[in-house]
Task: inverse folding
């Protein structure tokens, strides 16, 4: 099982063993990681599962699709490495992935 590291805005780390095929969002919710609200339930329509992918992981994670881009564009806290965690499926290649959680979601 790949390990995903979620880092809260205050530096608190959560290392979670993730199930391949689940999303980054669902993994956070299932493991009580704070800062992932997921108001829309993972439908890519609210942006309350916003994360920032550590720069050395952005190419592995890939680029957002058009729907995700539209939602991210509505977010004033968007950065170049912002993604919606509901749109990132866990794969073995993501073992060790580090994402940061924005302060405004706490």
Result:
């Amino acid at each position: 099982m790949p390990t995903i590291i979620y880092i809260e805005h205050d530096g608190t780390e959560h290392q979670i063993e993730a199930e391949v095929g689940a999303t980054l969002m669902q993994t956070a919710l299932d493991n009580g990681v704070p800062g992932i609200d997921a108001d829309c339930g993972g439908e890519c329509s609210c942006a309350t599962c916003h994360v920032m992918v550590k720069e050395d992981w952005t190419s592995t994670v890939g680029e957002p699709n058009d729907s995700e881009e539209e939602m991210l564009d509505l977010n004033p806290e968007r950065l170049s490495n912002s993604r919606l965690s509901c749109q990132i499926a866990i794969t073995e290649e993501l073992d060790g992935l580090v994402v940061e959680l924005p302060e405004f979601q706490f």
Remarks:
- The radius of gyration is 12 Å.
- The longest strand covers residues 3-7.
- The longest helix spans residues 66-73.
